[in-house]
Amino acid sequence: MCGIVGYVGKQQAAPILLDGLAKLEYRGYDSAGIAVENGEGIHVVKAQGKLMVLREKVSHTTLSGTIGIGHTRWATHGAPSDVNSHPHLSGDGAVAVVHNGIIENYQQIKEELLAKGYVFHSETDSETVAHLLDDFLKQGYDFLESVFLMLDRIEGAYALEMICRQEPGTIIAARKNCPLVVGKGEGENYLASDVPALLHHTRDVYFLEDGEVAVVTAQQIHLFNHDRQEVHRDLFHVEWSVDAAEKGGYDHFMIKEIHEQPRIVEELFNHRVDLEKGDIRMEGIELTKETLEKLSRIYVVACGTAYHAGLYGKYLMEKICRIPVVADVASEFRYKAPILDEHTLVIVVSQSGETADTLEALRIAKRHHARVLAIVNTVGSSIAREADDVFYILAGPEISVASTKAFTAQALSLAMICCHMALELGRMTKEEFRTICQDWSAMPRQISELLKQSAIEEALAKKYAQSKNVFYIGRGLDYLVSMESSLKLKEIAYLHSEAYAAGELKHGPIAMIEDETLVIAMLTQKALYEKTLSNIKEVKARGAKVIAITMAGDTEAKKTVEDVIEIPQSSWMMAPLLANVTTQLFAYYVARELGTDIDQPRNLAKSVTVE
Ligand code: G6P
């Protein structure tokens, strides 16, 4: 996600802020900016593009001052541009704000502020914070109280840093669900989203907790909880190396990103699900009853992991919406003769939004007058720009080549679109939708539970890392998720593995089963449980070692297989996504056992912009 830095002390702030932002570059960004206060006012310089562009702009200004805030933006609301970059100023420049996260209720607040005469310059949710804070300051509240009042109004996730002309020399920061660290120096203090940006200055830090507010001056750091009471905590002395700090203390970006999934699922749910209305917030994407009834078919087109998410979406849409859906890998789609016209909806799925084959598939679809809906992570990417509509998955930058959190967010996004279509078409009741929402809202906790028990996957990885052939089997959605699980193992552990529909094993692949072949069987689909269990018995009879991934409380599978990974009880729609978290962990630990380059596996690239 975005990166945040802050400095208050005796040195010039601008160079320190720029260096701090450089240390956060690994988080991914598309624009950057800084604000410096010098007693006469707040001066902002910001620019779309890499930090070089910002540095160049700064070098042409006299940005003097010993207090400032800085930001690298990874677009979520509004395309990457100078004006959408942070810091955002309030109307008369009294307040500057940088924000990481999403303000869920910004539209409503924005309308109130517009009615009061505030003028918005950007398309961002973050600018709302600057004006709202200014509004409280203008009502006569002091800086800290204004911040608390503003925080009482906003919903969503945030790490915020604010400076104001009225109280120069103070940075106020706040956090909820987005990281923020305060670093203590001698007569100078620092703020950052992550420890790496601080390590060159100090190793003594306070990690802000959710709901906390920090008031930082050159001499002092005061922390307050949500109830405005001061919190006293010991400083934490960071021992990490710079490399470890970038990964948030994890050994690899992949495992860090796996652990980000509970937060991402929660953010996506909060952002997209309108419980009051009983629908998905489609943000202008027109998939009405009339448009949907005219559709003859849907194509879902993508590559790699995104394709597997697409298969999940296809399954749901056909089962629930009863619309024919064809899923295809983009490199095939583009050379086939797909049936495309104005009654076709083409859904392209891409984390990067830059994959060459997917982009070309989009262009072909548009040339044939089909409507293109893109499910994308990267705002402002080529696919996002060229599609007719975009549904952002809000997963934040994914750095590890092997995709994990993006898959979960893509699959959930497709499930959300499917629910919206079903509601429009009258194929799902509000009641059924609310039941699904309950399952979705349980997912962050359930994924966290799985992550806490990752010693299970670690032990199994040790036990089976030397396997020569691995089969992932399942039926229905379990089969589709098996494909993604198998891909993960291939990508990072370089282990030969295949995914097979459990019922198809007997038509060939069972010939390959011999003593010690590892079979990982998914058993999350209650309706297909007995059938898959029979297939497990077939491979067991031929010498395979079997790990079953099954729901908590299943006593049957345990009697048959060597090892069991239990996932929390969940519905047919969500359980496979939980199972997939366990296979992400398994692949990760096998790769670690085998000593491969986990974040940058051989021969692979994160974004494949060539055919
Ligand atoms: C590459 C990556 C995969 C990814 C695929 C599609 O092969 O290594 O992890 O799934 O591209 O990428 P996209 O950005 O379009 O989702």
Structural features, described:
By secondary structure, this protein is an alpha/beta fold. The chain is 38% helix and 23% strand. An eight-stranded antiparallel β-sheet has the order 3-2-4-1-10-9-11-15, with helices on one face. It has a seven-stranded antiparallel β-sheet with strand order 5-6-7-8-12-13-14. The chain has a five-stranded parallel β-sheet with strand order 19-18-20-21-22, with helices on both faces. Helix 18 (529-541) links the parallel strand 25 and strand 26. The structure holds 6-O-phosphono-alpha-D-glucopyranose.
Write the layout of secondary structure elements.
Blueprint: E1 3-8, H1 13-23, E2 31-37, E3 42-48, H2 51-59, E4 67-73, E5 88-89, E6 95-103, H3 106-115, H4 127-138, H5 143-153, E7 156-164, E8 171-176, E9 181-184, E10 189-192, E11 204-207, E12 213-216, E13 221-224, E14 230-231, E15 236-237, H6 242-246, H7 253-259, H8 261-272, E16 273-274, E17 279-280, H9 289-294, E18 297-302, H10 304-321, E19 325-329, H11 330-333, E20 344-350, H12 356-367, E21 371-376, H13 382-386, E22 389-392, H14 405-425, H15 430-452, H16 455-464, E23 469-474, H17 477-493, E24 496-501, E25 518-523, H18 529-541, E26 545-551, H19 556-560, E27 563-567, H20 575-594
Parallel strand pairs: 18-19, 18-20, 20-21, 21-22, 23-24, 23-25, 25-26, 26-27
Antiparallel strand pairs: 1-4, 1-10, 2-3, 2-4, 5-6, 6-7, 7-8, 8-12, 9-10, 9-11, 11-15, 12-13, 13-14, 16-17
Bound molecules: 6-O-phosphono-alpha-D-glucopyranose.
